[in-house]
Amino acid sequence: MKKVLLLDMDEDLKNSFRLVFPKDEYQIMHAASGKDGLDLAFKEKPDIFIVNLKLKDMKGEEFLKALKDKGYKKGRFYFLRDEGDKEDISHIEVDGVIEKPINYLAVHGLLLERAEKGEILMDKREERVLELFKSSSHPSVDEKFLELRDQIEAILRDVIEEAHRKATEMIEPLIRTYIQWYVEKRLPYVAERILKEKIDEMIKLLKK
User: Fold this and answer.
1) DSSP conformation class of 183
2) Which residue among 43, 58, 118, 185 is the one 20 to 30 A from 32 at the CA level?
3) Based on the domain organization, do 43 and 116 belong to the same domain?
């Protein structure tokens, strides 16, 4: 089971993360301050850190420095940026940055190392590889990525269309059976009840 340490002043985030990450695969821990986060880090040894750039008692950058100064080397580290926060953190070496409002499915993909470019920032190592490609004799690396993405999207469209067709083939007979049952069994009862109600209304009007 992977341990995730979430440092953010919003305690409700912990529950939101729990909705996306299976309990049998991830243990989500939370702290609102850097001090409590450091205590938890050395007690629980998290595999993944998700740390807001601004905590109650320190900045996320200061938390990361304190972690390193104390000799903690385990796990991956991601900053969590509040909506509207423009702080420049390009000089800090981390595995990625998660932006608020949080796309939890994208974060789940990030932690599973299946994140797609554009949903979240790439891992620093991926950025370096991409820069190497761009600076080498492969100037069309972006075109290759786009071409591959288009191919994947085309395959997915075909899969979805095929799944839709099969689902329609399976559901259509069921719908027909239900309609037939409704017409034969249920509809006469409903019609009789409505007719009785109308007759009762007419009788009441005649009595007046």
Assistant:
1) I
2) 118
3) yes
Helix (H) or strand (E) holding 180: helix 141-181
pLDDT on residue 61: 94
Cα distance between residue 76 and residue 36, in whole Å: 19
Amino acid at 3: K
Domain housing 80: 2-135
User: Domain check: are 51 and 80 in the same one?
Assistant: yes
The CATH number assigned to the domain holding 113 equals 3.40.50.2300
Tokens of 138: 């492969």
Task: Please name the residue that has the structure tokens 């288009």.
Answer: 150
Residue 134's SS3 state is: helix
Interatomic CA distance for residues 87 and 81, integer angstroms: 9
pLDDT at 113: 55
End-to-end distance of the chain based on CA atoms, in angstroms?
A: 76
Segments of the chain with pLDDT less than 50: 114-130, 132-141
Say what the pLDDT of residue 142 is.
55
Structural domain count, the chain? 2
Q: Going by C-beta distance under 8 Å and a sequence separation of 6 or more, which residues neighbour residue 138?
A: 144
Identity of residue 46:
P
Of 135, 153, 181, which residue is a domain's last?
A: 135
Q: What is the pLDDT of residues 73-128, one digit of tens each?
A: 778 899 999 988 888 888 888 888 998 888 877 777 776 654 343 333 334 444 44
Residue in the block written with tokens 């590889």: 129
**Strand, helix or coil for residue 70:** coil
